[in-house]
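Task: sequence in, structure out. Protein: phosphoglycolate phosphatase.
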Amino acid sequence: MIKAIFWDNDGVLVDTEPLYFQATREVLAETGVALSREAFIRISLQQGRSAFDLARDQGATPRELEDMRRQRNERYSALLAHAPPALPWVKETLHALHGRCRMAIVTSSLREHFDIIHRNTGILGYFDFILTREDYQHTKPHPEPYLTALKRSGIAPAHCLVVEDTQRGLQSSVDAGLACAVIPNGLTGDSDFSRACHVLGDIREVIGLLG
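Result:
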């Protein structure tokens, strides 16, 4: 019996991953480093590494890399200010699940970006708690984010379900001992989701998993 659902944010609840890719690609391009869509998917969404590793491999110093991250975060914030609201069927699905189990968001997003994203989504009231990048030392694909969620919820792993959209998120949840349902999107559809307990067509199918 599922007593808690831990939701990823970007790509599951909101369509923000293309904006993160855009901001990262633009900053890298200014340093002469090309970031393709395929490389971003492989490095960031599948392996869980920073795309700025490409600049590091071409000789960028730690100080230069930090400046690139700062610029990327500023551009991403600006793009998010005009981002669309929650993805289709998200609010309806959360409404249908509300009260049937505990729910939380477990994201690698910085809190400042998370707050911008959800200014107008109207969905945060459905969640019992929210964990952002500042709440753990190691981010996905490390299991710490979901281990932190488990500890916060007080619910046994066997009664929890994770909903993700990326290979790095799937690895994080499975390594934390949790079952994970994956909803692939335009950036993640070709990833390896063989470790998922379910691969869903859209978010509405999560409702049926509660039985």
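The longest helix spans residues 62-80.
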